[in-house]
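Handout, page 2. Input:
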Amino acid sequence: MTTSVYLSNEEVTVVSGKALKKKVKICSFETVPMPEGAIINGKITDDDAVRSILTTLRQGKKIPKKNVRLVIDSSSVMDKIERVP
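Output:
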């Protein structure tokens, strides 16, 4: 079983499941709200708040010790300014 932890500006989502031949079996799903400003555009600005949430999820056996994937959401966009006549 694999567990994915998705960190976004608004929440932490933990999904555990198995990849089968032609489908995915979800075994557990948990969502916890992220304090406002703890993560901004993929950058952790309040590490104590993020650590507290992850520690609580770990102690509640929602996040295992092995087979964990961490995903941090970011809306970084590269842009280039050009002058158009």
